Structure formats: C-alpha cells, structure tokens
Amino acid sequence: MISDLKSVCSHEDVGDRKALAASAPIRAFAYDSSAEALQDMFLTVAAEPLSALFLFISPAQDFDDVVEQASQYAPESCITACTTAGEISDRGYGDDGVVAIGFPAALFDVSPILLADIHNIDRHALISRVIRDRATIKARNPSFLHEFGFLLADGLSLGEEKLMSALAPALGSLPFLGGSAGDSRRFEHTRLWFNGQRLEGGVAIFLVRSRCRCQVFRLDNFAPSNTRMVVTDADAEQRLVRRINDEPAAQEYARILGKHPQNLCLDTFAAHPVAIRIGSSHHIRAIQQVTDEGHLVFACAIDEGMVLNLAEGEPIVAHLERHLAALNQPEPPALIMGFECLFRRLASVQSQCQHAVSKVFKDQNLIGFSTYGEQYNTLHVNQTLVGVAFYPAA
Q1: Among residues 12, 161, 190, 218, which is most buried (max CB within 10 A)?
Q2: What order do you get walking across the sheet with 50-57 strand by strand?
Q3: Domain locations in the chain as residue ranges
Q4: What predicted TM-score, i.e. pTM, was given to this entire model?
C-alpha cells in the first residue's frame, strides 16, 4: 500500500530569501543526548527553509523525543528519521548521537513515497507513482537540472530484495541508493518514522531534483577468492542457510575458515564475508548471525543452489581514500551523504584502522550512518559504502 501522507515535500518560490545563500545540504550533529546538543543541532540545521530534513538517530537516544523536537524546530519541513547501527558525523564514527541533514528549499525538491508494509507492494501502483512523481517535480522545477533517488528501509524487514525488484522497472537511468535502518549490534528493533507516521516494516522512498550536481556511487573492498561452497539447504524467506556442502552450515563455514564453530561471531562474519555472482559481477553476502541450531542467518538474499565464494579484502583505508578522492574531479563535493554497512565498520575496528577510516570520512566531508544493508540502483547489497556526493550549486 502506498501512503499519501504529506506526499510532496514541495519546493516553494523562495525568491531572494536567505535560503539562496545555501549551496549544498546543511549538516548538523548532536554527539550525545543532552538537551543542549540537540538544541544546537536543530538551530543549525533548521536555520533556513528546508524542503526535507533527515535524522539518523542512535538507539541510545530517545527517538520519540528527538523527532518531536524536530517537528517543533522545522514545522514546515518533511521530516524523516531512522535508527542506526552507528553514526558518521564530522568527527567520523560515533555511536550515541544524531546526524541531521537538511535539504534547503532553494536547492532541492523532494517527493516522498511511503510504503507501510514492504511485503505488501502493489507493483503497478508503485511503478506508476514513481514515473508520475519524477515527471511532476521535473516540470515544477525546470531550473533543477539534477536528480537522484534514495530510500530508508526497516533493516529487519527482510524485504529489501522484493522492494528493489518492484522498483526496478520504474527507476530506468535514475541514480539510486539507500540504507536499511539499524539497531546498533543487537538486531532486535529498528525505528523508521516520517512526519508522525511509524514505518516499522516499511520504507520511505525519496525522488529528488536539485540545483546541485549529484553523483551516486558504490564501493566495496572485497573480491571473490577461489574457495567455493554451495548452499544445499536454505529458507530464502528468512535468509537462513541450514546446510553448506551438505554439512551443517555454521560447522562447514567454520571448517573452511579453520575456526571452531563456537568462535563464530560478528567480527568473524565482518572479516570473512562471501560473494555470489550476479551477471558478470560478484556481490557480497554478509552473514549476520549463527543460530542455536548451527544455521547461518544472512543479511541479504540467499537460496539453495547458490555458489558462494569466500571473499578476500583489500586494505580498507587505501581503497577508501582512492575511491573517494576520485569524486573530487573537477571539484570536491560540498558534502557526501553515505550509508555504510555495519560489517564494514566492524571490519575496520577488527583491523584497528577505524580511526584512519574516520579521518578519511572527515577529510572528504562524508556523513551518514551505519546500516543493516544498502541499496544501489536496483540491488540490495551488503558490506558496501553507497553514497551521493553533492557539489556546490552555482
């Protein structure tokens, strides 16, 4: 079902108002849950008229209080909020704060589409809505020459693949990305909210046109090795693998790694993901947890008969520096909004390079949050960093 609640975050004719001084999205942060930190963040991000405000909120925060305050400081804006598996602020990685990104009305027109139940999608209605809304905001803003789309989904919905399959015919050449809301490292309860409507189990999709040039990108530092395994028993709906190579899944995965099954944990999964081939490319499938029965729960689509290659990683810092630096041509972006898989973050911690990664993020003006999964064009993926770089509006 597609919700029409405040279905258009419209661009207003702001004329010569001070919003025209903005040249890119506005960013602000609360590094803790103190009243002063939240107030300073909202005073900064809501200082100019906004077409949309996005809040990435640590589970350590009082989610309801944060969104209530946002509604008070930016009552005319479309406000969207989700919980995170960690934040990325101007200090790099953080765990207890809030990241706020405001899209100034002078620069952005945002059209939201809400799906209350990610497992109950009217494909025809969704495709028609996306095509219609893209045409509407293009006609409404002939001087806004750049467009992209993104989404925020419930990271425990287990439905992102179905969603992306339904969206694919409507996206065409539209650059698209997304992030699945997190719950720290607990995998128990995520929150997703839009203008007073709870969307747990759902998704919020945003079609954006802008005066700012925008570049959507994706990167991961893994490649498939020659070590292969075959999924021989799985529950695709639950992303659950019971047997690999016709052996108990966790036991066989541990054997391949040379580890004891009882020592498997999030850090192990982050350091040793697997990859599957889709077309001519390989895509990472992150393992989320091991069950008491010795089954493996994946964070992305998995099914019987899939051939998995153990993945090998390039050093993450050098890889990150090289690929983000490529976005600096012909000019550096004013801001990058990024959605990075929790498992990349855990791998950085495990290899003791999280501070170096944080420095790269700070140097490249990348902010966002750690996710339970990412979306890129028509795919739901794991262990990647997806983002959109915003270049200063003329």
Answers
A1: 190
A2: 26-30, 98-104, 50-57, 78-83, 192-194, 197-198
A3: 2-219+319-390, 222-312
A4: 0.92
